[in-house]
Design brief:
There is one protein chain. By secondary structure, the protein is of the alpha/beta class. The protein contains 19 helices and 18 strands. A 6-stranded parallel β-sheet has the order 2-1-3-4-6-5. It has a 6-stranded parallel β-sheet with strand order 9-8-7-10-11-12. Strands 14-13-15-16-18-17 form a 6-stranded parallel β-sheet, sandwiched between helices. The protein is globular and about 70 Å long. Bound molecules: thiamine diphosphate (TPP) and magnesium ion. Magnesium ion binds next to loops. Thiamine diphosphate binds next to helix 17.
């Protein structure tokens, strides 16, 4: 068949990407990628990031917001290295990213010319599900198909395919096989019934909801189960996606992020049912048992590694939505249980405003203008609790943050989330709340936001310091750590330099005026808000 014989690896791969609807490519080009990018097809869109950390996180945000895998193209070893922190984060976020990277020509790899990606499959490990360089040029499309299939299946995650630059013009074997794979699996029936029995028998169960619920589309099923059981619901510690409405009367806040306080918080419960989260994602070490005496634990997850890694309890493998829906049918009605007292959040403001404002005052001012359809992206370590107090998440797909704590993810992820809104025409604005320190790690994303005129409002609480690390220093008793102050940052100039509208806002009125203007702007705005430097306890 003449057509098949003359089709190149390049053409076969683009046809495959088209068939898989991977037509938005996030990247930063180099000479090892140009043979792939040449004659860039008109039905594809290339989203340029000026540094690969930004590229990877933009793709991650886009994949999460579209609930589809995303395609990334990195520049050989150096680009992979720059992207590595956010590849790690994508792995923990369980985001399906198909990462391709250029590689030197096969003709020369042996003598390691410039741009060689040495031990190319080792570099991204252990934070990819698969790393591969095809042994023959003809295997490139098949490797991309395999990468896609693996990235998508639970637990989803990034995969990495290194492609030598001379592969693209070689003759393909023919059109690539286009395959589909499943993205969820149902739990084992017997074990599910056993779990349902134990939940029904519990006098005082606590539900602990993690990001897999939101990702699986299980938000409503989670609410229905909690209401049927009349059980309090906690966010899993350090969860990256709220999976339960934070204004619901059964909502009890996020579990503490350290062992001792977490087990204290569960005192009095005889069963913790953790759905869609690790057991548990701690941050500082504060000694204590994993669970209080008398409390058992059940875990439901689609991730065998999280199931194996749980410190206590029994696990059931299954998709969060499918499992919650099945449990809803099987558990006994819990209307005899006493519902918990609703959270009593402190939403008081001082009689006269502080100067500079506290973060709490800033979020209070913003919340008055909160568009009902806004999406929050958050990387503001020392004041994220204030944000949650004033701007509770009440709907799915409305809040994103990272699962890793590796700074430099959220500012670019906001670009991907906003691009997804633009492509699908939702009109939803993205409000990215990013600390003045955090913004610096992949600040180049601001250029991508400006270039694509994305509806993002960056709120940058400026304390001129790494406040959370100062709070950590108190907790850990590590005085006199150097380098926790950031005295020279000029966020407004930085933002303008990348092409964004930018302004400083110091008072309630200035904040509200700037925010209103930004909501109506045709492109991103960065609002730098000086905030008080008063430290608070970390836990
Ligand atoms: C890539 C990376 N480098 C360093 C750190 C350590 N770190 C954790 S929080 C933090 C400070 C964040 O500062 P900022 O964004 O200004 O927030 P604030 O604590 O002031 O609210 C740092 C440096 C990290 N988490 N990730
Ligand atoms: Mg700061």
């Amino acid at each position: 068949m003449a057509i098949e014989q003359t089709q190149t690896v390049w053409a076969a791969t683009y046809d495959l990407l088209r068939a898989l609807q991977l037509t938005t490519i996030f990247g930063n080009p180099g000479s090892t990628e140009q043979p792939f990018l040449k004659n860039f097809p008109a039905d594809f869109q290339y989203i340029l990031g000026l540094q690969e950390a930004a590229v990877v996180a933009m793709a991650d945000g886009f994949a999460q917001a579209t609930r589809r895998p995303a395609l990334v193209n990195l520049h050989t070893s150096a680009g992979t290295g720059n992207g590595m922190g956010n590849i790690m984060t994508a792995f923990l976020n369980k985001t399906p990213l198909i990462i391709t990277a250029g590689q030197q020509t096969r003709e020369m790899i042996l003598c390691e010319p410039m741009l060689t990606n040495r031990d190319e499959t080792m570099l991204p490990r252990p934070y990819v599900k698969w790393a591969y360089q095809p042994t023959r040029a003809q295997d490139v499309p098949g490797a991309v198909m395999r990468a896609y299939a693996l990235a998508l299946q639970p637990p989803a995650g990034p995969v990495y395919v290194s492609i030598p630059l001379d592969d693209w013009d070689k003759a393909a074997l023919g059109p690539a096989a286009v395959r589909s794979v499943s993205t969820r699996f149902a739990p084992d029936g017997d074990r599910l019934r056993e779990f349902a029995k134990r939940i029904s028998a519990s006098k005082r169960p606590a539900l602990v909801f993690g990001a897999e619920i939101e990702r699986s589309g299980g938000w409503d099923a989670g609410v229905a189960l909690a209401e049927k059981l009349r059980a309090p619901v906690f966010h899993a510690p350090n969860t990256e996606r709220p999976s339960f409405p934070e204004a619901h009367p059964l909502f009890q806040g996020m579990l503490p992020i350290a062992m001792g306080p977490l087990s204290d918080r569960l005192k009095g419960f005889d069963l913790a049912v953790v759905v869609g989260a690790p057991v548990f994602r701690y941050y500082p070490y504060i000694a204590g048992p994993v669970l209080p005496p008398g409390c058992e634990l059940l875990q439901i997850t689609n991730d065998p590694s999280d199931a194996a890694g749980a410190l206590v309890g029994d696990s059931l493998l299954g998709d969060a939505k499918l499992t919650l829906e099945a449990l809803l049918e099987l558990v006994d009605d819990g209307s005899s249980r006493t519902p918990p007292k609703p959270l009593n959040l402190q939403r008081k403001q001082p009689e006269s405003a502080n100067s500079p404002l506290t973060a709490s005052e800033v979020y209070a001012a913003l919340s008055e203008l909160r568009p009902e359809n806004a999406i929050i992206v958050q990387e503001s370590p020392s004041n994220m609790r204030d944000l949650a107090t004033w701007w509770p998440t009440v709907k799915p797909a409305s809040y994103y943050t990272f699962a890793s704590g590796g700074l430099g993810w959220d500012a670019p992820a906001a670009v991907g989330v906003a691009l997804a809104q633009k492509q699908s025409g939702t009109g939803r604005p993205v409000v990215a709340v990013i600390g003045d320190g955090s913004l610096q790690y992949s600040v180049q994303c601001l250029a991508s936001a400006a270039q694509h005129k994305l509806k993002i409002i960056y709120i940058v609480p400026c304390n001129g310091e790494y406040a959370i690390l100062k709070e950590f220093a108190v907790l850990e008793n590590t005085p006199n750590v150097p380098a926790l102050d950031l005295p020279t940052l000029d966020i407004v100039s930085t933002a303008k330099g990348f092409g964004c509208a930018a302004t400083e806002a110091r008072t309630r009125q200035e904040i509200q005026a700037a925010f209103s203007k930004a909501l109506n702007a045709d492109g991103p705005t960065v609002i730098a808000v000086p905030i008080s430097r008063k430290l608070r306890p970390l836990i």
